[in-house]
Amino acid sequence: MTVLLGYGARPLPLPDVPGARVLLPPVAPPVPDLTAALDAALAHPVGARPLATVATARTRVVVIVSDSSRDEPRAELFAAARRALAVVPDDHLTIAVANGTHGPKPLERLGLPEEVLRRHRVVNHDARDDASMVEMGRTSRGTRIRVNRCVAEADLVVSTGKVKPHYFAGWGGGAKGIFPGLGHDVDIRQNHKLKADPASSLGRADGNPCREDIEEAVRRIGRDTYLVNVVEAGATIVGAVAGDVVYAHREGVRLARPWCEVEAAPADIVVVSAPLPVSGSLYQASKLIPPAGLLLREGGVVIVAAECPEGTGPLQVVNEGIFELGVRRFLPAGATVLLVSAMNEATVRETYATYAPDLATALARARDIVGKAEPSVLVLPDAGDLVPRAL
C-alpha cells in the first residue's frame, strides 16, 4: 500500500518501510449538507439565543473570519451568519480577518465571493498597528487586552472558525477568533507564553491556562459575542455548533473528540505531515511535532515532511516562541527533529530542525541516530488532526 503524505502542493509518497505503522483517525461521517448543518446550529444555539433574534436593523455587527493560513469553509460560514443576520443592513456589518500575529494577507486568498467583499467594510487586521487598537483591560493572569477598533465599536461580534485539535490551546475555534485573532501582537505573545504550562496541552479545553486566558479576555471585552464553528475530524466536517463562545465551543469539542483521539504504541521514528496550508511554512508545520512527541520513544526521531513554500516564517518566533516555549516539552529526552522540505540546507540550518534532502535520506539518518537495525516506525499522514495517547 502506498502511503501519501500531505507535504504541500502535491502529496509525497512514503518510501517502503517494512513494518511501518500508519496512524489515522477513525473514519468520521461527514455532514450530508453543510448549509443545513450551519442553519440548524444557528437555530438551536448552545448557551445563547438564536442569532436571528439577537440583532436588529440598528445593530452594528462584526463577523470574524479566519485568515488564509487556516483551511476553513469561510464562505459557507459567513453566508450562514449573514442569513441569520438578514435584518442587519450591509453598511452595519463589518467583516474582520483574524490574522492574529500572522499579518495581513491578500483578501483574495480567503475564498470569499467578490460580491461579499464589495458589499461590506473589510478590516484586514494588523496586530502591529497601534493606531487600530483599543484598550479593553487585563485578564487575571496579567494579559493586556487590546483589540481592533472594529470590535470596540460593535454591538455584536460573531466569530466563525473550526473546532479541531490545537497543540497548546487544546482545541481551535471558539473565542480564539476574537482574541488572539483581532488582538495586539504584544498581548497575543503574552498570552502565548502560557503555552509553556504543561496544562496548556493538546486536546485539553477545560483547565487549560492558555485557553482560559483567551476566554477571559473575550469576556472582559464586554461586547455581545457569538460563535459559529464547524467541527472537523480527519479533514472531514462532522458537525456545526453555534451560540456562546465558550459553551458552544465545548459542545464542538465533545463532537470532535471521538474522531480525533487515537491510541498507538510508541515508536523510535515518527513521520508527520499535513496538506497545505499547515505545511506552508515551518511556522505552521511546527504544530505537527507535539502529536508525534507524544508517541516518540526516548532518543527517537521525528521526521517532519512539509514543503514550506512560504519558508520558515519569522525565525526568532519559530525557534524560540514556538519550538523552545511550546513544542520542545512534548518531545522526550534526546529527541531529534529532521525536516524534509523544499528549503535548502542553509535555510534549515538557521532553525531548530536538522536538514534532510528527502524522505529516504531522512529515514536512513533516523535509523543511524536511533542506533537500531530495525527501529519501529510510525507514520501520521495528517498529524494536526490527532490527539494521540501512547499505549
Which characteristics define this entry?
391 residues, alpha/beta, 2-enoyl-CoA Hydratase, Chain A, domain 1, Rossmann fold, six-stranded parallel beta sheet, six-stranded mixed beta sheet, 13 helices, 28% helix
Structure report:
- The protein is an alpha/beta fold.
- It has two domains: 148 residues, LarA, C-terminal domain (2-enoyl-CoA Hydratase, Chain A, domain 1); 226 residues, Rossmann fold.
- 28% of the residues lie in helices and 26% in strands.
- It is built from 13 helices and 20 strands.
- Strands 3-19-15-16-17-18 form a six-stranded parallel β-sheet. Strands 6-5-4-9-12-13 form a six-stranded mixed β-sheet.
- α1 crosses α3.
- The two termini are 25 Å apart.
Question: What is the element layout, followed by pairings?
Answer:
Layout: E1 4-5, E2 12-13, E3 21-22, H1 34-43, H2 51-54, E4 61-66, H3 74-84, E5 93-98, H4 114-119, E6 121-124, E7 133-138, E8 144-148, H5 149-152, E9 156-163, E10 165-166, E11 170-171, H6 185-192, H7 209-221, E12 224-233, E13 236-243, H8 247-260, E14 261-264, E15 267-273, H9 282-285, H10 289-293, E16 296-305, H11 315-327, E17 336-340, H12 345-349, E18 354-356, H13 359-370, E19 377-380, E20 387-390
Parallel strand pairs: 3-19, 4-5, 4-9, 5-6, 9-12, 14-20, 15-16, 15-19, 16-17, 17-18
Antiparallel strand pairs: 1-2, 7-8, 10-11, 12-13
Please provide a brief summary of the model.
The chain is built from 13 helices and 20 strands.
Number of domains: 2
Q: How many β-strand stretches?
A: 20
> Compute the gyration radius: what is it?
21 Å
Strand order of the largest sheet: 3-19-15-16-17-18
Number of separate helices? 13
Strand content: 25-35%
Low-confidence runs (pLDDT<50, min 5 residues)? none
- Strand count, sense and closure of the main sheet? 6 strands, parallel
The CATH topology of the largest domain? Rossmann fold
Q: Which word captures the global form?
A: globular
